[in-house]
Amino acid sequence: MKNWPLTLGLLLGFLLACATEERARAQGAAEAVAEQEMAVLTDAEETVLLDTGFYTTIENLDDLIAYYPLNNPFDDINDQGGTRVLDPDTGRWTPDRKDLRNPPMQWMGPYVVFQPSRITLDGAGYDPGTLLDPWGRPYYLFTPLGLARPVEGTITLELYGDRFDRYAVVSLGPDGVMSGDDLFRFFGSAPTRLAVSSLTPSSSPVGQPATIRGYHFGASQGASRILLDGREIGAADSWADHEIVFHIPAWATSGGVQVEVGGVPSQPPLALAITLSRANPIWRQYQ
Ligand SMILES: [Ca+2]
Ligand SMILES: [Ca+2]
Ligand SMILES: [Ca+2]
Predict the structure, then answer these.
(1) How far apart are the CA of 106 and the centre of ligand 1, in A?
(2) Which ranges of the chain does DSSP label H, i.e. alpha helix?
């Protein structure tokens, strides 16, 4: 009888160890599922590129050319009169939706099958009909320029922004936020044409340094220019193929920043908001 507490303690410890091990096993299994699914998604994207010349949304990958109304209209590749596609040359959405129903560059999907229980009609804040990871959050699609948002047709600097130089499918992992447990699967390559992805900071007083990131700026400035609403900002502080650092000139007002290489300005312009420096408001009080 004296040994009961000890035995009970050992038993509890053993059960606890089992539970922890079980949880780790389940976690590992979920991660393996996610990695497998991400491989399927990126392979499907590469096949879509071969068939159509574009990458497209994760939601689209199970779409078909529908000849009758579908339960989920978004699973018709021509829903809303055409689909959003990403141009591998620019890393951006094409300006218009594309009708991919006709040869020669024709939609041959579905390229994958999504279980109905694994998609969500509200898109979990990302894209209705997109596949969710094993933890119930969307797999996110990144281009080399940032997060591809299919509903808005935008590329944003949310989450990993323009940190990758290739395309990527990303799962935020078990904790559902950006952290060390995130999973990545890369595919495709950098844009083949001049492309800008970010201006940091996007809001600043004049006289401060700012950084433009993107592709194909060239190894040095040469005859290339930085423009603010079409007006030339002088020599950059530093110029590299992916990154330019410059000082915001004293004459600057809020507007759009572009990099012009070979006479061609980057599109779209990156918004720069000029704010008052800290000293200015006080100085103004004494005017
Ligand atoms: Ca679709
Ligand atoms: Ca779909
Ligand atoms: Ca995470």
Answers:
(1) 15
(2) 4-52, 279-285
Ligand found nearest the CA of 118: 2
**Same domain membership, residue 22 and residue 163:** yes
As given in the structure block, the two tokens for residue 171 are 């799962």
Query: Tell me, what DSSP letter sits at residue 75?
Result: G
Q: Amino acid identity, residue 1? A: M
| CA dihedral (83, 40, 92, 172) positive or negative | positive
Reported pTM:
0.88
The answer to whether the beta carbons of residues 91 and 145 sit under 8 Å apart is yes
Distance 119 CA to ligand 3 centre (A): 20
Cα 102 to ligand 1 centre (Å): 16
Residue-wise pLDDT for 158-217, tens only, equals: 999 999 999 999 999 999 999 999 999 999 999 999 999 999 999 999 999 999 999 999
Helix (H, G, I), strand (E, B) or coil at 284: helix
pLDDT tier for residue 247 given thresholds of 50, 70 and 90: very high
Q: What is the bridge-based pairing of β-strands 270-274 and 255-261?
A: antiparallel
Q: Are residues 204 and 147 in the same domain?
A: no
In a shared domain, residues 106 and 215: no
